[in-house]
């Protein structure tokens, strides 16, 4: 499984420039933050705190 993931990472690295990798990583990070924030918001809303 670890070999598979490293192979996928190698394919990704070869198909994108360094600046593209940084931009994609940043976008993925902020999407993850947005997802987690929405989970917290809906959890608080379901409990009646919001």
From TrEMBL:
Q: Where are the transmembrane segments?
A: 28-46
Q: Which UniProt keywords apply?
A: Membrane, Transmembrane, Transmembrane helix
One Pfam match, by short name? Emr1
**Gene Ontology process terms (BP):** outer mitochondrial membrane organization
Under the cellular component aspect of Gene Ontology, which terms does the record hold? mitochondrion
Q: Which InterPro entries match?
A: Emr1
Instruction: Write the protein's name.
Output: LAFE_0G05754g1_1
